């Protein structure tokens, strides 16, 4: 056995103390400065913290303002597209409705002519007099702005007011248009009960078209196949007092529906100009 002493045990490595947090360091420095009554250092430390907080709020506020401006511009671009589409739809509808609006007026005027108009004209007027197409303004973006409260993102006060006013005017005109449509439908029902619709339809579409119709469909079932329908007495239709009164009422209803349609388009055009003036500002 060796009498040599055993080798000394290796000492454990020193443990490193955790680094103090910046917050604790700040408070330690501040406490030390207060104990030394070094008020300059105290004010400097507090001032640095306050300035950092203020700058942080300013950066956050600037970032929020930038986000709000981006949302505002997105809304305005979409609103401009909605308004332009509303104008386009109104123009298309005006062109489509023009002959349908003239028809009942022409038939009402024909009642007073010394000689009845040409037969084909009377048949066309009588057939399309009750016809109409629905209005369809695009209100999605304006409604979203108001319903979600995002209307507050619009910086210009007058534009915010104009958007809200446009939405209310559009809804008012839609309601007005719907009320006059109900008048038109009531007159159409009475017109259908007064006029030989089967004869009128048969004359309007012509024999070739009648031969191709599916007679199983009720609205096309004018007569059994192979049975000739009598000719429509267009002179009697023009002179009929009840038909004349119905044409006058239908004309009035369609004229007022056209007014509502034009007002929607006019308000849309005015608002679009105002919206486009605010784009990219």
TrEMBL record:
It comes from the Bacteria. Residues 1-21 have a biased composition (Pro residues). Residues 1-22 are annotated as: Disordered. Keywords: Membrane, Transmembrane, Transmembrane helix. The chain crosses the membrane at residues 39-59. This is Uncharacterized protein. The lineage of its organism: Bacteria, Pseudomonadati, Rhodothermota, Rhodothermia, Rhodothermales.
């Amino acid at each position: 056995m060796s009498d040599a002493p055993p080798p000394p045990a290796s000492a454990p490595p020193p443990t490193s103390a955790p680094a103090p947090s910046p917050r604790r360091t700040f408070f330690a420095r501040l406490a030390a400065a207060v104990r030394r009554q070094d008020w300059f250092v105290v004010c400097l430390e507090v001032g640095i913290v306050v300035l950092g907080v203020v700058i942080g709020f300013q950066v956050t506020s600037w970032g929020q303002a930038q986000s709000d401006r981006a949302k505002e511009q997105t809304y305005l671009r979409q609103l401009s597209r909605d308004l332009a589409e509303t104008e386009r739809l109104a123009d298309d509808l005006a062109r489509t409705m023009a002959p349908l609006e003239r028809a009942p007026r022409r038939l009402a005027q024909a009642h007073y002519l010394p000689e009845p108009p040409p037969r084909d004209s009377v048949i066309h007027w009588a057939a399309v007099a009750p016809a109409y197409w629905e209005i369809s303004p695009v209100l999605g973006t304006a409604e979203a702005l108001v319903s979600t409260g995002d209307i507050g993102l619009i910086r210009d006060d007058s534009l915010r007011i104009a958007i809200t006013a446009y939405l209310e005017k559009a809804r008012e005109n839609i309601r007005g248009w719907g009320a006059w449509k109900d008048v038109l439908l009531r007159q159409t029902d009475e017109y259908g009960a007064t006029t030989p619709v089967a004869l009128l339809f048969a004359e309007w579409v012509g024999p070739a078209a009648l031969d191709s119709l599916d007679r199983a469909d009720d609205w096309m079932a004018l007569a059994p196949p192979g049975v000739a329908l009598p000719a429509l007495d267009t002179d009697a239709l023009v002179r009929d007092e009840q038909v004349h009164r119905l044409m006058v009422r239908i004309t009035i209803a369609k004229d007022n529906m056209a007014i509502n349609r034009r007002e929607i388009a006019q308000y849309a055009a005015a608002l679009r100009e105002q919206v486009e003036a605010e784009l990219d500002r």
